[in-house]
Amino acid sequence: xxxxxxxxxxxxxxxxxxxxxxxxxxxxxxxxxxxxxxxxxxxxxxxxxxxxxxxxxxxxxxxxxxxxxxxxxxxxxxxxxxxxxxxxxxxxxxxxxxxxxxxxxxxxxxxxxxxxxxxxxxxxxxxxxxxxxxxxxxxxxxxxxxxxxxxxxxxxxxxxxxxxxxxxxxxxxxxxxxxxxxxxxxxxxxxxxxxxxxxxxxxxxxxxxxxxxxxxxxxxxxxxxxxxxxxxxxxxxxxxxxxxxxxxxxxxxxxxxxxxxxxxxxxxxxxxxxxxxxxxxxxxxxxxxxxxxxxxxxxxxxxxxxxxxxxxxxxxxxxxxxxxxxxxxxxxxxxxxxxxxxxxxxxxxxxxxxxxxxxxxxxxxxxxxxxxxxxxxxxxxxxxxxxxxxxxxxxxxxxxxxxxxxxxxxxxxxxxxxxxxxxxxxxxxxxxxxxxxxxxxxxxxxxxxxxxxxxxxxxxxxxxxxxxxxxxxxxxxxxxxxxxxxxxxxxxxxxxxxxxxxxxxxxxxxxxxxxxxxxxxxxxxxxxxxxxxxxxxxxxxxxxxxxxxxxxxxxxxxxxxxxxxxxxxxxxxxxxxxxxxxxxxxxxxxxxxxxxxxxxxxxxxxxxxxxx
Length: 612
Ligand code: G6P
Known about the structure:
This protein is 36% helix and 22% strand. The chain has 612 residues and is α/β, with parallel strands linked by helices. The relative contact order is 0.09. Helix 4 (128-142) packs across helix 5 (145-155), helix 7 runs antiparallel to helix 14 and helix 16 runs parallel beside helix 19. The chain folds into three domains: 3-242, Glutamine Phosphoribosylpyrophosphate, subunit 1, domain 1 (4-Layer Sandwich), CATH 3.60.20.10; 255-451, Rossmann fold; 455-594, Glucose-6-phosphate isomerase like protein, domain 1 (Rossmann fold). The protein is built from 19 helices and 27 strands. Strands 3-2-4-1-10-9-11-15 form an eight-stranded antiparallel beta sheet, with helices on one face. Strands 5-6-7-8-12-13-14 form a seven-stranded antiparallel beta sheet, with helices on one face. The structure holds 6-O-phosphono-alpha-D-glucopyranose. 6-O-phosphono-alpha-D-glucopyranose binds next to helix 9. The site of 6-O-phosphono-alpha-D-glucopyranose has 16 residues, from helix 9.
């Protein structure tokens, strides 16, 4: 979704803004723009539809826009089509105010009508232009930029991260946040704003995360932060320890492929510090055994692939903890009047820690008295900050829109949590506990082995990439694995794809199986392998072209029925999806490659979905 960068310092601002925006490209966007304030107090704006490169070419890589203070934006259209006019920054009619905005101003129609009645002329269809015009209106009324910002914030409703400049103050950026991510970067003689720490990696590691209702005033020398009552506050600084190289392609053709390949390392970072002497240790969980026993209901709440992690978690946590676990899409949970009280544990899963629906679900759960434990990748993100307990996944920055290493680390952490809780509750045998711990220890290396044997996947992708519809079938954990495999494929290759619990085939989907239909049959869940096989026979007898995925121990059996078989190593059943997902990620990747798709930035999708 939209990205924000702001710079005030001694260097030329435009190249820094363009560089920062390029680090936010992964979030998904359809136009980009910057505004730079010249020393003479003149706001220069350049913006264009399409890729950032178009904007950069238009302004000579930033050389043509001179000034040491500026704001930049990548827009993901919500109000008004993606075009040059609707892209940000937006200027007020008198060209004194420039604004960039992430989020949605919900009462913009009413404010626009008010301003039109006051004689203001609008040029765009956006909700954001209303902020620029209203800010100019109040500024003209009171003559004080900061005071005018305060008035605007009291008038607007909705979600926002705002970057604001005034031509009369060529030494100041004002920024404000409500329900949209925003952070401040502290440099040497320079300060920054950004929607995402990735934008600032080459410039500073010293950041402060803004909270809802806060306003900050940036000059070259300082940043002053105010609370909603406009009182100056001190905030704790955080240090970003991600390497710049982690957010760069480093010789790989695509971030997605790089991130698939980074999974063994990411898993090591997520698992190893939490395994000591054969025991799982979560220093970061404060929930006690007594509190856990008091919990009557567990929800797992998330969106997208994080929700699919939750689906695996439902099966595994119920198996290990012998407690009922509901898994809910965050967008449904928040509006479903959920049965949540102080005897409920809500496990929230989110890579970005900023997904709006997930954030809203978390707040709903907390307001109903639940205890919230989150599994998050981005340190200091909103979901992490508002949870009672946070388990970080330590996957490092994930840039490709389609998640891979974040999914894998979330899954490992959730499985570990299930085992940790089961041990606390005494619901898991010593033997099973030890077997899963052994499996966790071996997991990164087994993922490495799986990645090393990917030639078959390339071969199958080359023969299947022309299909226009694919069905993933499987039972139990293989069904949940199919959900993720199917999502990966449709996200990046645009092939219609559905995941079905094999037992449901006869209730509908089997009517769609005809000669040549591609069915990806998942048979990695040993306990139900025979049942999975009967479904394979069923679809084959209706003409399906089957590609199967199974484990080493079931390979021979599978090959009796299916010619094209992908194989992963065996592990403990609860960990099997952690291996099974790897070939499915690679299959989606190679299929998309054959189809010539924009793999890292698939159409219409965003990395971090910060609007409803
Ligand atoms: C977007 C991403 C997905 C991700 C989902 C949830 O749709 O493209 O990869 O799974 O958001 O995001 P979160 O950051 O909350 O895990």
